[in-house]
Amino acid sequence: MRRTIRRILRNRSATIGFAIVGLFLATAALAGVLGRYEPLSQAFAQLARPDGAHWLGTDDLGRDVWSRICHGARVSLEIGVVSVLLSALVGVPIGCVAGYVGKWLDAVLMRVMDVLLAFPGILLALAIVAFLGSSLVNLMIAIAIVNVPTYARQVRASVLVQRELDYVSASRALGAGHARVLFRHILPNCLGPILVLSTLGIGTAILEAAGLGFVGLGLEEGRPEWGMMLAESRQHFLRAPWVVAGPGVAITITVLGFNLFGDGLRDLLDPRARRR
Q1: C-alpha angle with apex 27: 21 to 28, nearest 5 degrees?
Q2: Which of 81, 46, 79, 55 is nearest to 199 (CA)?
Q3: How far apart are the C-alpha atoms of 72 and 119, rounded to whole Å?
Q4: What does the alpha-carbon distance between residue 116 and residue 131 come to, in Å, rounded to a whole number?
Q5: pLDDT-derived band of residue 168, with 50, 70 and 90 as boundaries?
Q6: Burial code of 206-241, b = ≥16 C-beta within 10 A, e = fewer?
Q7: N or C, fewer C-beta in 10 Å, the chain?
Q8: Which residues of 139-177 are buried (b: 16+ CB within 10 A; e: fewer)?
């Protein structure tokens, strides 16, 4: 345990990323305490400058920007975690089956994934949200569908390597069925890449949700979501830059934190790095 902690502390990316992610999680959990006002309250002066009462000023409707950013962290966290879970729940079994069974089933499943990958991710998400309608659930479904091929291909590649190893042959020789070999023996040895990909995927999902919110296809109007906050305040950028700077910086730092943490986690889980 101590050795693991020392390795984490020696990895600068993992340490910085973990600190940023921890700050993001704390902000989401304590939004009701940190956010001094209700995020939808319009009882304040419009476009008020930052001061002791409103740390990041107010927007064009008199809503406290800092409070909306804090509550928006909850929305972004929910979108990131749920969409990644949905992507993994669909993509991981597809990759497992394709890599283990192979042959025509592998070809069919991977061609379906290729079709999804042929579309730019943000455009495919836009099309899905436009078809389903703007809501939190539809937004998470759209982002999950876009990222399914990434998980499927990553898991397939890992399974292709693992199925040729000796422990798989030994399990088969002992009479283990295909399902047991795949999900009891092979899949646990593929969890490292899945964990890293999921960590990076949360940051990507938050960024995609902000992009969809910016073009008006995110959540219902009025909800404190960072992308929608940027879209609603972009016309006031020159007159009140703090309205745009707050959610913009929040998106940048949060995505950077998850990316750094994912990169550091990848290094920590790399067997070659353990020998150093």
Answers
A1: 90
A2: 81
A3: 29
A4: 16
A5: confident
A6: bbbbbbbbbeebbbeeebbbbbbbbbbbeebeeebe
A7: N
A8: bbbbbbbbbbbbbbbbbbebbeebbeeeebeebeeeeee
- Torsion sign (Cα): 135, 136, 139, 140: negative
Token pair recorded at residue 93: 């079994």
> Could you read off the pLDDT of 113-140 as tens digits, one per residue?
999 999 888 889 999 998 888 888 999 9
- Domain with residue 208: its CATH number is 1.10.3720.10
Are 125 and 138 spatial neighbours (Cβ–Cβ below 8 Å)?
A: no
Q: Please tell me whether the overall predicted TM-score, pTM, comes out greater than 0.85 for this model.
A: yes
As for how many domains the chain has, the answer is 1
139 vs 159: CA distance, rounded Å: 30
Cβ proximity of 25 and 273 under 8 Å: no
User: What pLDDT shows up at residue 4?
Assistant: 61
pLDDT in tens, 211-262: 888 887 777 777 788 988 888 888 888 888 989 999 999 999 999 999 998 8
**What is the residue range of 130's domain?**
2-274
Of 160, 143, 114, residue with least CA distance to 219: 143
- Rg from Cα positions in the chain: 22
Q: Which residue is it, tokens 């001061």? A: 51
Structure token digits, residue 79: 């979108």
